[in-house]
Each structure stands twice: as structure tokens, then as C-alpha cells.
Specification:
This protein is about 20% helix and about 30% strand. It has about 160 residues and is of the alpha+beta class. It folds into 2 domains: about 1-130; about 130-164, no CATH class. A hairpin with a 6-residue loop joins strand 4 (about 50-65) and strand 5. It starts with a strand and ends with a helix. It binds zinc ion (2 copies).
Length: about 160
């Protein structure tokens, strides 16, 4: 979705609000996917000489848990506010994705904010115990602790005798 910021400055007659949808299901994100449509809203309110732009979006992501690889589904509610001054779109270092004509690519902005918001390491739960190195299943798996941790000490003595 494209929002014509320059026109809002030129013909301001009150707050502007626009809903948008964005499909990022084919895009690359680091360690997760955004398989469903993202829904959001932008609003722009002129306060003195500053246009206060607010972006809100809900992004549902899926990712493998960093410890047990189970699928994690999580929703992120993202809200950001930006101050825009007239002519900001001509600034090559503008933080927002403007065209030189003063149009703002809201879809691209929504995508950038997901990248900033979603951590690249996600867990199915904070106390996920991860996978058992013995049986490969999610812990707790029923393996006895000593089987996971180390070789039985009696066996290691035997092993030493055999190698000496
Ligand atoms: Zn997990
Ligand atoms: Zn196990």
C-alpha cells in the first residue's frame, strides 16, 4: 500500500486513516516465516508542522523452536510512530521508505518493522528443555539422567584399561 504523504501535507483536512493488508508469505525472514496475511492500519495526523504517522500491524509468524524444533506460532502486535516533516522524502537518508515524489511504501515499512520486532531465536516455551541427546526426543523423554550426561564411570575405567 502506498500513502501519498506529500498530498496529505498539501491538502490536509483532518486525520487520515487507512487499513492495509500485506502478503509476506513469499518473503525471506531470518529464521521464521510470515505465512498469513498481515493486517494493519496507518494513520497520519498533522500536529503543527509535523505529520505524526502511526503504523499498527498484526503479524502471525511460524518458526522452529530453537531448542526442540517444534513449530512455534506467535502473533506480534507492532505499533510505531514516526514524525515526518514536509520535504523529508527528498532526504536521501530518510528512515522511511519514500519515493522522491513523497509517496510512502507502507508495505515495505510494515515488512521492515517485522524484521526489527521479531527475534531470530524463538522458543516454544521459555522452559523448553530441548531434545534429548540420547533418544532424540523432546525432554522430558524418560531417559535416565546418567545415560544422557556421560558414560558410566565404571565403563570409562574399563575403557582406560583396554587402551593402555
Ligand atoms: Zn521447544
Ligand atoms: Zn531421551
Amino acid at each position: 500500500m502506498i500513502l501519498d504523504i506529500r498530498r496529505i501535507f498539501e491538502n490536509y483536512a483532518g486525520p487520515v486513516e487507512r487499513k492495509f493488508e500485506a502478503d509476506f508469505s513469499q518473503d525471506d525472514f531470518p529464521g521464521y516465516e510470515v505465512p498469513q496475511k498481515v493486517e494493519g492500519m496507518v494513520s497520519a495526523v498533522l500536529e503543527g508542522r509535523i505529520l505524526v504517522l502511526t503504523l499498527r500491524e498484526t503479524a502471525g509468524i511460524t518458526a522452529p523452536c530453537a531448542r526442540c524444533l517444534d513449530e512455534v506460532r506467535q502473533e506480534f502486535l507492532i505499533e510505531r510512530t514516526y514524525d515526518i516533516r514536509e520535504g523529508d522524502w527528498q532526504d536521501e537518508e530518510a528512515e522511511l521508505p519514500f519515493t522522491p515524489e513523497g509517496r510512502l511504501d507502507v508495505t515495505q515499512l510494515a515488512r521492515e518493522e517485522i524484521l526489527l520486532e521479531v527475534p531470530s531465536v524463538l522458543l516454544c516455551s521459555d522452559d523448553c528443555l530441548g531434545l534429548c541427546p540420547v533418544c532424540g526426543k523432546r525432554r522430558p523423554c524418560g531417559c535416565k539422567p546418567q545415560e544422557e550426561d556421560a558414560v558410566d564411570p565404571r565403563l570409562s575405567v574399563l575403557k582406560q584399561l583396554l587402551t593402555d
